[in-house]
């Protein structure tokens, strides 16, 4: 009997101890818990304007569309390829980042199969480095120009004989130049983070032109 009472009392003590034992919880607050890295999704690529090359003097987009570029076939028209410099570093008078150098190389590859007569750039590292790969491929020197004087400079250039010209500038100067060549305000300044725009303008005389807008 005594043994039975001792056994019952022992069982009750063990049960009570288990019941009162505090439950272990994760004391890390929600703000301290490691957050899952959020994937940054890029905007869908617009294949209708994503330039992948040229065929028979026509621009070819990623969706297979062929876009006529009049200046490439008309001996009375010049063609201007206008681009902003590629992605830049953050130093003073910045050069190009790795992404920027890749974009400059891509630009050179896109235009390599075309006849390019002149390559022009503002006198900054980022623009000169953007123009450099095509200049090397075409064995041309990069001619510096003052963006403050581009209205007079490029108006004069359009009265010369037919030529194909690459012009590298900036997010504000390239749209301004495009509007000068086209003859009306149709191109707005580029977004600060937009380095992908390529304008191709076919011009027969100042203020009379057709243009196409691509991404690359």
Structure notes:
This protein is α/β, with parallel strands linked by helices and 216 residues long. The chain has a domain at 71-215: Phosphoglycerate mutase-like (Rossmann fold), CATH 3.40.50. Helices cover 30% and strands 23% of the residues. The chain has 5 helices and 9 strands; from the N terminus they run H-E-E-E-E-H-E-H-E-H-E-H-E-E. It has a 6-stranded mixed sheet, sandwiched between helices. A 3-stranded antiparallel sheet has the order 1-2-3. Strand 5 (118-121), helix 3 and strand 6 form a beta-alpha-beta unit. Helix 2 packs parallel to helix 3. It is globular and about 45 Å long. It starts with a helix and ends with a strand. The model is unreliable at 3-9 and 12-44 (pLDDT under 50).
